[in-house]
Amino acid sequence: MRDAFQREIDKGTTPGVVSMIARRGQIGWFEAQGKHNPANTIAMSRDSIFRIFSMTKPLVSTGIMQLVEDGFLLLNDPLYRFIPEFRDQKVGVERNGQLAFELPVRPITIQDLLRHTSGLSYEITGLGMVQRIYARSKASHR
Questions:
Q1: Which residues does 134 contact at the CB level (< 8 Å), separation at least 6?
Q2: Which pLDDT score is estimated for 134?
Q3: Where are the beta strands (DSSP E) in 36-139?
Q4: Per-residue pLDDT tens for 5-17?
Q5: Residue 35: is it exposed, middle or buried by C-beta count within 10 angstroms (0-12/13-18/19+)?
Q6: pLDDT confidence band for 57 (50 / 70 / 90)
Q7: For the chain, how big is the Rg over CA atoms in Å?
Q8: Residue 19 CB partners (closer than 8 Å, separation 6+)
Q9: CA distance 90 to 80
Q10: What's the sign of the alpha-carbon dihedral 118, 13, 53, 70?
Q11: Rounded-to-integer distance, Cα 69 and Cα 112, Å
């Protein structure tokens, strides 16, 4: 893990990293690498303070992984097992300037949600036909 983070620091992707892995109250890994920011030489420390945005995703992901660890769900469980409305979902496919709705190749899984590979979209994530429909729908409900 240290080597992977160091490669990112060396590439300039991030100036520094603080990482910790713990399980059942026991810390197995806790390390600081790199600098606080690329413009100074202050070393990152294990008690560095970070400004963090959008904490919903990591908190929900941690909760989901606890449910996996406790055996309540599996990463490859289909989303429709927990939200039945996703059982018969369709996906929007653009072809020759037209939008077709088709059955997906496979259902969305819990792992897809964690990796952000579910195919679910927002009106702000592009200029495709699906995003335009989202934008029009949102505008009509104001």
A1: 121, 122, 123
A2: 80
A3: 91-95, 98-102
A4: 999 999 999 999 9
A5: middle
A6: confident
A7: 21
A8: 1, 5, 29, 30, 31, 33
A9: 13
A10: positive
A11: 17
| C-alpha span between 101 and 90 (Å, rounded) | 6
Return the closest-CA partner of residue 21 out of 54, 76, 82, 65. Answer: 65
Helix, strand, coil proportions of the chain in percent (round to 5)? 35, 20, 45
By residue count, the chain amounts to: 142
Q: What is the largest CA-CA distance in the chain?
A: 56
Task: Dump pLDDT digits (tens) for 61-105.
Answer: 999 999 999 999 999 999 999 999 999 999 989 999 899 999 999
Residue identified by tokens 């983070």 is 5
Whole-model pTM above 0.90? no
Contact 91, 119 (CB under 8 A): yes
